[in-house]
UniProtKB/TrEMBL annotation:
Keywords for this protein: Amino-acid transport, ATP-binding, Cell membrane, Membrane, Nucleotide-binding, Transport
The species this protein was found in: Nakamurella endophytica
Residues of the signal peptide: none
Main location: membrane
Cited SUPFAM superfamilies: P-loop containing nucleoside triphosphate hydrolases
PANTHER family: AMINO ACID IMPORT ATP-BINDING PROTEIN, GLUTAMATE_ASPARTATE IMPORT ATP-BINDING PROTEIN GLTL
Protein name, as recorded: ATP-binding protein
Domain ABC transporter: 15-259
Pfam family of the protein (one): ABC_tran
Membrane topology summary: Peripheral membrane protein
PROSITE patterns per record: ABC_TRANSPORTER_1, ABC_TRANSPORTER_2
Any one cellular-component term (Gene Ontology): plasma membrane
């Protein structure tokens, strides 16, 4: 890997992708993605099914490897660590520590089924270590309160609705005060009447200045709360900018066609 061009420069973005390429065998999924997310920014990623949105998020926290370009998270190159003046492949423990500093919310909640809501939230803290049990549980209760679920602290995931489970998952994702939270279609698996309660929690996080990357099909929500929107198709960023531009006044035919399709049939897989 090559040395960074901007090493040591202040005010680097929290996340920066440069020419990122990723393939699964013959399938080119990311074909040169450029994207920056700054501190406090909520960057929304929209696009058709299969365009590479989830894969891009998963590359940022090393759940997938990438084959070309560079992904920077703050001052480190994802997948690599510095040895002297060289970058070498990151050791598994380095990757694990970095991943603990990035929260992730999945489409299907991914809570531990044998743990209560509180223990699930606390598990997000223990991974970074050093947090005493009592203090962790106190903070866990605060986080559950923040997502409106302190009364459900002792419930197991199977005793919670999908919307409640996803709110617990969000509390867990922010438990370790991560530098960045990734949301991978957080409302796609929910019954329509449960979507709003999850969006409410996410809206609060954007207002609090959480740095977020959100893959979503909720276009109206993106228009309302995003700081920036990236429209991705076939593994490339077709168009990006503020939501007032990309969603209200798209410049590219592909963006317009996608938005029209989603608006005309919200039940269609975009
Ligand atoms: N582990 C994998 N192995 C092989 N192909 C994969 C793998 N993961 C994803 N793909 C393929 O990569 C392409 C992009 O998938 P990805 O999930 O990133 O798309 P997406 O834009 O998030 O779509 P959706 O909105 O449907 O979730 C798809 O064609 C998918 O089938």
């Amino acid at each position: 890997m090559t040395a960074p061009a901007v090493d040591g420069v202040a005010d680097v973005p929290v996340v920066s992708l440069r020419g990122v390429r990723k393939n699964f065998g013959d399938l080119q999924v990311l074909d040169g993605i450029d994207l920056d997310v700054h501190a406090g920014e909520a960057a929304f990623v929209i696009g058709p099914s299969g365009s590479g949105k989830s894969t891009m998020l998963r590359c940022v926290n090393s759940l997938e490897t990438y084959q070309g370009g560079q992904i920077w998270v703050g001052d480190y190159l994802v997948g690599a660590e510095r040895k002297g003046d060289r970058w070498v492949e990151a050791a598994p423990k380095v990757t694990a520590a970095r991943r603990a500093d990035i929260g992730m919310v999945f489409q299907r909640f991914n809570l531990f089924p044998m743990m209560t809501a509180l223990d699930n939230v606390v598990s997000g803290m223990r991974m970074v270590g050093g947090v005493r049990k009592q203090a962790a549980e106190r903070r866990g209760m605060e986080l559950l309160d923040r997502v409106g679920l302190s009364a459900r602290a002792g419930f197991y995931p199977s005793q919670l609705s999908g919307g409640q489970q996803q709110r617990v998952a969000i509390a867990r994702a922010i438990a370790a005060n991560p530098r960045l939270v990734l949301f991978d279609e957080p409302t796609s698996a929910l019954d329509p009447e449960l979507v709003g309660e999850v969006l409410d929690v996410m809206r609060d996080l954007t207002r609090e200045g959480m740095t977020m990357m959100v893959v979503t099909h909720e276009i109206a929500f993106a228009l309302e709360v995003a700081d920036s929107v990236y429209f991705i198709d076939h593994g490339v960023v077709v168009e990006s900018g503020p939501p007032s531009q990309v969603i209200r006044d798209p410049q590219h035919a592909r963006t317009r066609e996608f938005l029209t399709r989603v608006r005309n049939d919200p039940h269609e897989e975009p």
